[in-house]
Amino acid sequence: MTDTDKEMIxxxxxxxxxxRETAEVPDGLADRIVADADRVRQSWxxxxxxxxxxxxRQLYDMLGGWPAMGGLATACAAGVWLGFxxxxxxxxxxxxxxxxxxxxxxxxxxTAMAEEG
Length: 117
What we know:
It comes from Sedimentitalea todarodis. By secondary structure, the chain is mainly alpha-helical. It has six helices and two strands, in the order αααααββα. β1 and β2 (102-103) form a beta hairpin.
């Protein structure tokens, strides 16, 4: 509202008039509406079942497509590479697991995994 026009239109009069009026529904209209709604609902359920993608497609879409899948494959390859042939600045994880040809014969793995300080 502007400062010059301070008059309020009383909407309650219009709302009361609308409440007093009753609308008559033509014969058979409600039945046709319900029948049409059932027909549309059935067509949606059939098409939704036919178009549902498989689990791999859902996973592919969830991850973000080919760019994300390429990044995951690269990270996996780099992890495997670093696991099998670590750089010289990183310790070889095989020396912590295999000691004297036996698998975890003493506390060497626990010692290696313990925090310093």
